[in-house]
Amino acid sequence: MASTIKKRLLVIALAEATFDLITPWVEEGELPTFKKFFEEGTTGNLKSSIPMITPQIWSSIVTGKNPGYHGLFDFWQRGKDGKFKEMNGSQIKVKPIWKILSENGLVSGIVNIPFTYPPQKINGFMISGEDAPGAHHSIASPNKIYNEIVEKFGRYRLKDIFPGGRKKEDYLKLVEEDVKKQTDVLEYLVSEKNWDFFLTFYSATAITQHYFWKDMLENNEYKDIIKTAYKSLDSAINRLCDAAGENTTVFLISECGAGPLISGVQINTLLQKGGFLTYKNSNGASQKQNSHFPGKSILRSKVAGFRKNAPGYIPKSLFYFANKNMHWLKTWIQTYLAGSDIDWNKTFAFSRGKEGDIFINLKGRDPHGVVEQDQYENVRDKIINNLSSLIDPSTGKKAVNKIYKREELYNGPYTDLAPDLLIEWVNDAYMPTESDKNKNFIFVERWRENMNWPTSGSHRKNGILLAKGPGIVKNKGIEKAGIIDMTPTWLHLLNQKIPEDLEGRVITDLLDKKFLNKNINNRTTYNL
After folding, report:
1. How far apart are CA 522 and CA 528, in angstroms?
2. Neighbouring-strand partners of residue 462
3. Rounded-to-integer distance, Cα 495 and Cα 364, Å
4. Which strands form 197-202's sheet, in the order they lie side by side?
């Protein structure tokens, strides 16, 4: 067993977990570990970002800065040359918390966190999250920790258990098994390895909420799949807390919350009907392609089919090598196939991404730019005025809460990499589609590739924040906590000086007097 460390901090992230579900289930006695946090610690909402998308949110959590400083806005991002490229953790422009801790001699264990590929050499160990290309020893630093895990537990599962192509009745068992397998590995690392700061991530809550929220509302035979995911995680949290020991401060967080989805929205169709985008053919039907990233589903289906039917003697390492080293193929697909049905010479704006990002087709910046530089603001204003009045015919009410110019949400040297406009939906209850089976409609069901049923759950801005243990006050609500406040708060609890350039603040509401009065304003500067 690893020796007990005087001051340790364990952070368990539960993707898109929400108090809207946790609180009533705690009251019903379904979540005993969460109940302990309610009774022995403190809780509150954790405010997410606009838009709520993984690369942006998680990079903000671990750096304490907004995307204008850390530089990550989406999975695929437009560069200064106007071309889109796939993003990963190596493109974060500022130091994450584990780098700061390493420089100060503290040991970190970072496991499964989104956008940590390629793994960084730190004082401790890192196993990359879902953005890694596959299960292989190079997703871990040092590499030997991956081999150690495989030797003890078998193949390490990196990706979510995505329900695409599966039957609903088979999915519940898979979720429970996946949480248990992941917890077996985490329990071993928490109990046997030396660390001061341990940060990990579970995705079961997000996946089940996205695809089974409607079943829960309809109270049908699959209504308990989301609850079962929470109960499995409740047990997992208890195991990890026991493994960490009672002298460890523990945080439970989610990067955003969740709620029901009213409808998917085809942003490019919306832009087309507003006169800002033109398709090459009259009806805009490019049935085989995806308006956001058509190449992704094409590539996935071809690779998946090849791998399924490949002879057994073809080594798995070959597939990993291709996935890791053929990003040029993905880039080519994204650059030359995505939007190939758009008439760029007649298009003033277009959408790409999963959260309603809108890009102006600007001359001098974008490869097919047509909007003159001096017309940029005028075009943005026209789009805002046109799209802001969008009415959902199913409700008779507005669907758009606000359309932001990027400088209204971000500040910093990389703000110019952000989309030109970003949509905030009413009650966060709409999401852009990833399918364009019929471009004649704006409001459609939201499908993902290979799915047998549509998405029924969406994001919400309020994530969860629970904490208990040394340094944490009991039974006091947390107010006005945001995702960029996590890193400075964790540094403070670990008795570390806080970099002067962090935008986030220490969340004083959750600290007891001893920690509240100690070094609260003690900030320093770290060179990049």
Report:
1. 19
2. 47
3. 49
4. 140-141, 124-127, 108-111, 197-202, 8-14, 248-253, 462-468, 42-47, 478-482
Amino acid at 312: G
Backbone angles phi, psi at 517, to 5 degrees: -90, 0
Instruction: Provide the pLDDT for residue 205.
Output: 96
One domain, residues 486 and 508: yes
pTM for the full predicted model: 0.88
Question: Is residue 432 within 8 Å of residue 354, measured between CB atoms?
Answer: yes
Q: In this structure, are 90 and 175 located in the same domain?
A: yes
Q: Are 361 and 426 in contact (CB under 8 A)?
A: no
Comparing CA positions, the residue from 47, 55, 51, 60 lying closest to residue 430 is 51
Measure the CA–CA gap between 286 and 74, rounded to whole angstroms.
Answer: 24
Please give, one letter per residue, the 3-state secondary structure of 333-366.
Answer: HHHHCCCCCECHHHCCEEECCCCCEEEECECCCC
Q: How many CA atoms lie within 13 A of 390 on its CB side?
A: 27
In this prediction, residue 284 carries a pLDDT of 45
pLDDT tens for each residue of 38-73: 999 999 999 999 999 999 999 999 999 999 999 999
- Of 388, 418, 445, the residue that ends a domain is 445
Contact 67, 411 (CB under 8 A): no
DSSP string, 262-293: -EEE-HHHHHHHTTS--BSSTT---TTS-SS-
140, two tokens: 């871990």
In a domain, 323, yes or no: no
Torsion sign across C-alpha atoms 238, 241, 246, 249:
negative
Question: Tokens for 504?
Answer: 């986030």
- Give the number of domains in the chain: 2
pLDDT value at residue 301:
42
Q: How far apart are CA 367 and CA 344, in angstroms?
A: 9
Of 150-159, 343-352, 488-497, which range is least confident?
Answer: 150-159
Pairing outcome for strands 430-432 and 391-392: unpaired
Q: Is there a single domain that holds both residue 201 and residue 101?
A: yes
Report, as an integer, the average pLDDT of 161-171: 70
Instruction: Work out the average pLDDT over 263-279.
Output: 95
237 in the same domain as 355? no
Q: Which residues are CB-neighbours of 345 under 8 A, at least 6 positions away?
A: 368, 370
Same domain, residue pair 257 and 267: no
Question: Is residue 110 domain-shared with residue 191, that is, in the same domain?
Answer: yes
Domain membership of residue 333 (yes or no) is no
Contact 455, 210 (CB under 8 A): yes
How many other C-beta atoms are found inside a 10 Å radius of the C-beta of residue 407?
12
* Mean pLDDT along residues 475-489: 93
